[in-house]
Amino acid sequence: MKKKLITEELIDKRLEAHGVKFDIEHDEALKVIQKHYDFELTDNWNGTPDYSIYCETTADGYEVWVTTSGDGRNVCINEDVHYYDNDLSEKLVEAMTDYNELIYVEDLEEYYVQDAVTEVYDSYVNDMKQEIENELIEEGYEYEKSE
């Protein structure tokens, strides 16, 4: 009896059958991850987000970025205020995957939003790939044993 082997081609075919795309535009990737992780990313302030990322100006004219749970009324200076914007992508990734239904971002075109969407989509694809591999194993497929 011929062994049923798990190959990258087989996994890719199954991923495609599940609607997973490898070459995807930013807006389409955002729609996919919003549906999968059950959140909405918006730049429309309505006063009731679960998580917020926005820019503020200090009393002496410096720009700082705030990343906080809720609408920004309970900002913790030590944890939520960033002098540099290079950590914002990481904070947004956490917000997207951490059960926040509505995430407010002041500017959806910022690079950190693009980076976060890419990172979360890649994570989504890896999760789906693991699911497919588990399905194949349950169906009797196996990896080729290296000698």
Briefly, what is this?
The protein is 44% helix and 16% strand. It has 147 residues and is α/β, with parallel strands linked by helices. It is elongated and about 75 Å long.
Description:
This protein is α/β, with parallel strands linked by helices. It has one domain (8-138). Helices cover 44% and strands 16% of the residues. The chain is built from five helices and five strands, in the order H-H-E-E-E-H-E-H-E-H. A hairpin with a 5-residue loop joins strand 2 and strand 3 (63-69). Helix 1 packs across helix 5 and helix 2 packs across helix 5 (111-138). The longest helix has 28 residues, at 111-138. The protein is elongated and about 75 Å long. The relative contact order is 0.21.
Rg (CA only): 20 Å
Approximate shape: elongated
Termini, distance in Å? 20 Å
The main pleated sheet reads as:
5 strands, mixed
Number of strands: 5
Q: Determine the structural class based on helices, strands and strand pairing.
A: alpha/beta
Total domain modules: 1
Mean pLDDT: 92
- Lateral arrangement of strands in the main beta sheet: 1-5-2-3-4
Tell me the strand percentage band. Answer: 15-25%
Order of H and E elements: HHEEEHEHEH
| Helical residue percent band | 40-55%
Q: Number of helical segments?
A: 5
Low-pLDDT stretches are none
